Amino acid sequence: MANPIKECKQLTPLAIFGINGKVENGVRQHPVTRAAIFPLGNKIAIADFAKNTQEFVAGHTNSISCLDVSKSGKYIASGQINHMGFRGYVIVWDYESRKEIGRHDLHKVKVQAICFTAEERFVISIGGKDDGSVIVFDVQTFSPICRQAASRAISGNALTIRPMHNNPYFFLTAGDRHLRLWSIVREQKKLYVQDVHLASKTRTFYCARIDKKDEFAYLGSGTGDIIKIVLNCCDRDNVTRPGTTSGILGAFGTHNPRKPTGRDCNRYVNGVRALYVLEGGRLLIGAGDGEVQLVEERTEVPLINFRDYPEPTWPYLRVVKRTRVSGRISSFVRSTPEKFYICTDTNEIYMLNINSWILKLLRTCHAKAVYFITFPKNYAAVFATAGHESIRIWSSNRKQELLRIMVYNFNCAAVRFAHDGTSIVSVWNDGIIRAFTPITGRLIYAIPNAHNKGCSALAIASTGRFIVTGGIEGQVRVWKIEPYRQNLVGVLKDHSGPITSLDINYLDTEVISACTDGSCVIWDINRMTRKQVVTANTQFMSVLYFPTGVQILTCGSDGRIIYWMVYNGALIRELAASKKSSVNCLSMNATGDYFVSVGSDLQVKLWDYNSGDVVGIGSEHASSVISAAYSPCGKTFVTGSTDGSLIIWEVPEEHWGSPNPPDGPSYQLPKPQPKGKPAVQSRVDSGTRLKPAPGENINGLLKATPKDDICCVECPPCAKKEGKAADAFAECKIVPDVRKC
């Protein structure tokens, strides 16, 4: 009788680490539910930080480039970037139902910025450099009503947009040598525009804010100063009031009282990237270098006194408080009257209390793709991820980052914990193998030039005596690891492409390597020879040994998961995991009953190993999923994607797996003791001792790290450059006289 097909359940995430901080003003907060709304790939994420929950709204065909939420929280508007020659969509969503209620595709390639006008009357969107138009979308009729070029021929592109607070028919656009005030005439379906007079000043504006009374506007420039303009609006036909015009009041910097007049003006490094207008004329300013300042105007000094100032930027702002965050600031979001969310382009969210001036790091995630995920041996409380410039250790229970090890300008291809938990071994694309301590992140040893084109895969033996690495050039190398010395044991050459995955069997006698050339090779580690080869018409992305070591599991770019026999390399079974995209990674639980697969179709699938059925599926990722790891307890697993997000998934209880083999009565013969001779401890450590060597161990990382705290460590350079020698022959290591050798 055939086995019944198991029911496929929807997998639920326990925690989601993910945010896209590179979108300008991309992080918003819902005014009623207080949920954070931000773009993540081609989806809109709605996250509740208090409950640690997150959901997605899908509908865009490519990455979201701008986002806005209406004042009442009823609607969400978003725009996307597309490939050259294609249209960029603008979509209006209903927040309660999470469904699309209107869209248009009138922009070319990219939607640069988007906003709701006052009273939720219109949605204004501006196109990127390939489009250059302003489009007004009527929310009442859910249709666009007018379109006009955003810039004049002598000015640059519009980069940001800001509506008035009290009048729904007026808005402001700013950008590269561009600052214009607009009015909407709904009956005639027209737009009237007036350029703001900036005198002789030329700026590139990155952000803009308008005060509550719609009298003044503050703009942050790439020069590092604040431009203040008077609006003098609002007249429907003339934009500004008759007989008046909008113009500049001045370009302001911060005052440095320690310097003499004429040199006492400081500008912001890398420009002003975010602004917020507070009560009492104070400003919260975020700079491109991560500087956050609370400033106020020097009202005791009249502006007319700066007419003879030698610099175009006047020191009219006084710094009240200051702090610094990591990365370029992209968004300011006011959560409560005294608390602000600060988002940076390194995908981090901070909470700043402007009264007590306490800065707290709330959320972190990788800024780029997560290349590898791993758990320690028999310890599910923490896991490690490898990404751009960093290795990060996360807590599964606290749902936060514990340790960050930074190696600038390089990518970590793979990371593994030593089985005794005393070290973290990693391989990098600069060709160096680095090992770190698990608590302080200190560099233990580094093996330079391990692979001449960079490392791409890593596997560690259970004894910790040797490690196996794979390179982009296609070689597999075995290294002997000793406390004070690391030696190359052998080089295994058979592949003709980059090594994508390595795995060692539980006896430490075989290692299997997967390659993009369509072959997987099983190597004998003791004899340094090839034992078996399996080939398929695909690019293998991941390979796994079954816990007993009798079968292997592979996946590749053809979307198939294949079972192979280790003894003779025979194909046992094929599973169609995806019809259109590749399967990028596999991970199996400790018992071998279930495994998880992830792919470029954004889906995470949980499989029954014996029946080959999908028993669970999850679709919470917003971009291609390229890494996965099953926890040692079998109750959770973690997946990572190309946008830097991580998701911890809960495995249903019926799929936790059973011990293999099942627990049963066991009996061991007593070991006879030799008479007359005391037991002498062996001098050679077999690597199977239960107690690890004294020192740092991964078990103590949670105790050593306070709650809501992150330890960030920078890795020192592995090779110092030697100074140029005084001797002409010393630089080439040549000894001209043989007698001096």
TrEMBL record:
Protein localization: Cell projection, Cilium, Flagellum; Cytoplasm
Keyword Aminoacyl-tRNA synthetase: no
Region (Disordered): 654-699
Ranges: WD repeats: 448-482, 492-533, 576-617, 618-651
Subunit: Microtubule inner protein component of sperm flagellar doublet microtubules. Interacts with BRCA2. Interacts with the CCT chaperonin complex. Interacts with HSP70. Interacts with AK8. Interacts with CFAP45. Interacts with DNAI1. Interacts with IQDC.
InterPro entries xref list: WD40/YVTN_repeat-like_dom_sf (IPR015943), WD40_repeat_CS (IPR019775), WD40_repeat_dom_sf (IPR036322), WD40_rpt (IPR001680), WD_repeat_EMAP (IPR050630)
Primary localization: other
Top-level taxon in the UniProt lineage: Eukaryota
Protein task: Microtubule inner protein (MIP) part of the dynein-decorated doublet microtubules (DMTs) in cilia axoneme. Important for proper ciliary and flagellar beating. May act in cooperation with CFAP45 and axonemal dynein subunit DNAH11. May play a role in cell growth and/or survival.
Taxon lineage: Eukaryota, Metazoa, Ecdysozoa, Arthropoda, Hexapoda
Protein name listed in UniProt: Cilia- and flagella-associated protein 52
Record has Cytoplasm as a keyword: yes
Keywords linked to the UniProt accession: Cell projection, Cilium, Cytoplasm, Flagellum, Repeat, WD repeat
A Pfam family of this chain: WD40
Family: Belongs to the CFAP52 family.
